[in-house]
Design a protein that fits this description.
The protein is mostly helical. The protein has one domain. 70% of the residues lie in helices and 5% in strands. It is built from five helices and two strands. The chain has a two-stranded parallel ribbon. The protein starts with a helix and ends in an 8-residue tail after the last helix.
């Protein structure tokens, strides 16, 4: 009886788990920011933003100039004319703000659209890699606290992606 109790205690104390499952993790943000196609998306979005910001800056400067001119002429012109000009400037400011908001929304939508295109092309690459290397589970790196570097499949996937997709078509 004592021997049986002793054996049960040993088995309960040393609960060792053996697993034949292969797990890996991937950093999708790194791939999106450092792949050739991901960089082309970022460059395209940044160029759109910079071009439009220059345009917005000239409009903003013109509105400020008109506003300063109107303030300097406040005591010279009639009150009715002054009120009309003030209302006109307010209308231009509101239109400017609305256009800027619409542009920012459009820019965000384009970034999401092109990122989703890249992810659609990345999914089969990851699936093939997982299948070829007998990986059971792939987790995103952002939920991993600590892991072996050998379990990180980010760089091999990045290399395969760069070899297969050079650029995203922005005209679709």
């Amino acid at each position: 009886m004592r021997i049986l109790l002793f054996i049960i205690i040993i088995f309960l104390k040393y609960n060792i788990a053996f697993s034949d499952e292969k797990i890996a993790f991937i950093n999708l943000n790194y791939i999106m920011n450092n792949s050739i196609s991901g960089k082309s998306i970022n460059n395209y979005i940044n160029n759109m933003r910079n071009n439009k910001l220059a345009e917005f800056k000239t409009i903003e400067n013109q509105i400020k100039k008109d506003e300063n001119d109107l303030i300097s002429k406040k005591n010279i012109i009639e009150k009715n004319v002054y009120k009309e000009k003030v209302e006109e400037i307010r209308t231009r400011i509101n239109k400017y703000k609305k256009n800027r908001q619409m542009f920012n929304k459009s820019l965000d939508e384009n970034k999401i659209k092109y990122t989703n295109k890249l992810l659609e092309k990345l999914n089969p690459i990851i699936s093939d890699y997982v299948e070829n290397n007998s990986i059971t589970l792939v987790l995103p790196k952002k939920i991993i606290i600590v892991g072996k570097k050998s379990l990180d499949i980010t760089l091999p996937i990045l290399e395969i992606l760069d070899n297969s997709i050079q650029k995203i078509n922005f005209n679709e």
